[in-house]
Amino acid sequence: MKRVFVVALLFFISSCNNSNYVPKDIIKPAQMQNIFWDMIRGEILAREMIKKDSTLNMKSAGLTITEKIFAIYNIDRIKFERSLDFYEKHPALMKVIFDSLHAVQTRKNSTVIEKKLKQGKDRRFSPGNLKQ
Questions:
Q1: Which residues of 55-78 are buried (b: 16+ CB within 10 A; e: fewer)?
Q2: Within a domain: residue 12?
Q3: 103 assigned to some structural domain
Q4: pLDDT tens digit string along 57-69?
Q5: Is residue 19 a part of any domain in this protein?
Q6: Is 13 within the bounds of a domain?
Q7: Cα separation, 37 vs 74, whole angstroms
Q8: Residue 47 backbone dihedrals phi, psi, to 5 degrees
Q9: With 65 labelled, which of 3, 17, 109, 124 sits at a CA distance of 20 to 30 A?
Q10: pLDDT by residue (tens digit) across 37-84?
Q11: Counted domains in the chain
């Protein structure tokens, strides 16, 4: 019985390593989430800019916006890539970041739909269209 207890205790201790630990030279999850969010929005902005100005190309517009995002967060490409590499090697932490991104977008979408329903502007979601 003691052996089972010792083995269980060792298993518990070894499984309790701090897998959520983020080294200080790595961008923290909350800030990484914000950076990802801004990069997504930046890519959309770049696409819109290209639609309006045919002299631009996606790569240069995207690069310019990405560099501005890095400047906003006081990071450089090296720190971002090192952090991205860290999170790719720690999928549980990466999942938390992307799940949070998804939750933020879902809340924003719900808010927009609720506002449209209150204003009666979105007929797709009017009570009459929801009946089956």
A1: eeeeeebbeebbeebbeeeebeee
A2: no
A3: yes
A4: 888 888 889 999 9
A5: no
A6: no
A7: 16
A8: -60, -40
A9: 109
A10: 999 999 998 888 888 888 888 888 888 899 999 999 999 999 999 999
A11: 1
Q: Which residues contact 35 (CB under 8 A, 6 or more apart)?
A: 27, 69, 73, 75, 80
C-alpha–C-alpha distance, residues 95 and 99, integer Å:
6
Taking Cα atoms as reference points, which of 85, 88, 9, 71 lies closest to residue 35? Answer: 71
Q: What is the pLDDT of residues 80-131, one digit of tens each?
A: 999 999 999 999 999 999 998 888 778 777 776 777 677 766 555 555 554 4
Residue appearing with tokens 């770049």: 46
- What is the pTM (predicted TM-score) of this model? 0.66
Q: Please, which contacts does 98-104 make with residues 24 or more away whose CB atoms are closer than 8 Å?
A: 98/36, 100/29, 100/33, 101/33, 101/36, 101/37, 101/40, 104/33, 104/37
Residue with tokens 């010792």: 6
